[in-house]
Q: What sequence folds into this?
């Protein structure tokens, strides 16, 4: 099969085409023909050498495709054979205390994470499991299916982590990215008033269409608080979804109202974040971490899309062998929404 692998770590040019044998699913696994794979900020970190991926790794965890083979130990194989599915980026074990309690994102006993422990979706085939696969409707195209888990479900999980609901004013940093645009739409769906922060003026109009009440271009915290107040907020935002890591962390923290909730999702700059303990104490702030979507989150996203409550932003696609060009476009912030590779 055709793949794109890392020749080393560094710039987009380290992503090179190669060939590998088609993987064989174990007894409890599925073999999925990849029809689309999203390009996530996590992929960029892996390519740069910040994460666990090394030379020879096949990265990519935003995967949609078709089940073409079913392991002999899979229950009800007819329910999976030939099904179009979207995949969660980690295959859990399904048996450890975290899995049985429903916290499959914390499982450390399963086969692992695409692009690190498992060969990822920059390929024609991947192994999967009924534990990380969710059927997708026929009217959801492959490129859209690939972004439902990470690009949409991760934001839904984060907003729920903060208890977001009607009447809240929510600030979303990095709102023009693939995760951010959908977080804006989801927060609006949950009844919140949304202030979107982005570094790109070209992304203002799409964010307003998605439901943002205001879009601010590279603002400081004082400007964010003023705009929040104009929109009926208290002395700041009720919730901030921080999707960028270190670049916007200080603005995010200082944008919060007393008692506000900050949710950390983005790790695009996994450096020491400038947390101000005094500010957190005086304003009695809550800081949450929120991981990737699990199978339950993905199932909820599929239902939201099926019902028309959420319409994922159309993805921009590249052929698999042009993965380096897709990475370059994402790094240059030339993509509104998600970049997707199509084998």
A:
């Amino acid at each position: 099969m055709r793949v794109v692998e890392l020749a080393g770590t560094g710039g987009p040019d380290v992503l090179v085409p190669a060939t590998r044998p088609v993987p064989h699913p174990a007894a409890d696994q599925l073999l999925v023909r990849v029809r689309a794979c999203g390009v996530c900020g996590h992929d960029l970190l892996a390519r740069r050498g910040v994460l666990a991926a090394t030379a020879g790794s096949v990265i990519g965890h935003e995967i949609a495709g078709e089940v073409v083979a079913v392991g002999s130990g899979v229950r009800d194989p007819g329910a999976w054979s030939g099904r179009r599915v979207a995949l969660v980026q980690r295959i859990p074990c399904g048996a450890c205390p975290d899995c049985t309690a429903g916290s499959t994102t914390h499982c450390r006993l399963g086969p692992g994470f695409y692009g690190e422990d498992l060969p990822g979706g920059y390929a024609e085939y991947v192994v999967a499991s009924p534990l990380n696969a969710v059927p997708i409707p026929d009217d959801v195209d492959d490129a859209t299916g690939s972004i439902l888990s990470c690009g949409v479900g991760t934001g839904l999980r984060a907003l729920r982590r903060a208890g977001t609901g009607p009447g809240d004013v929510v600030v979303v940093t990095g709102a023009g990215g693939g995760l951010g645009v959908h977080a804006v739409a989801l927060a609006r769906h949950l009844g919140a008033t949304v202030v979107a922060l982005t570094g790109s003026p070209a992304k203002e109009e799409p964010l307003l269409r998605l439901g943002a009440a205001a879009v601010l271009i590279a603002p400081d915290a004082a400007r964010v608080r003023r705009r929040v107040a104009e929109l009926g907020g208290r002395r700041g935002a009720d919730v901030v979804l921080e999707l960028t890591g270190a670049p916007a962390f200080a603005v995010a923290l200082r944008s919060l109202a007393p008692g506000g909730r900050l949710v950390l999702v983005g790790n695009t700059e996994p450096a020491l974040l400038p947390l101000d303990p005094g500010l957190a104490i005086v304003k009695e702030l809550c800081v949450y971490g929120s991981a990737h979507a699990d199978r339950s989150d993905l199932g909820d996203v599929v239902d939201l899309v099926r019902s028309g409550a959420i319409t994922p932003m159309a993805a921009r696609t590249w052929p698999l062998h042009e993965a380096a060009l897709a990475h370059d476009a994402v790094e240059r912030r030339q993509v509104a929404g998600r970049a997707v590779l199509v084998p």
Notes: The chain has a mean pLDDT of 92. The two ends are 10 Å apart (CA to CA). The chain has ten helices and 17 strands.
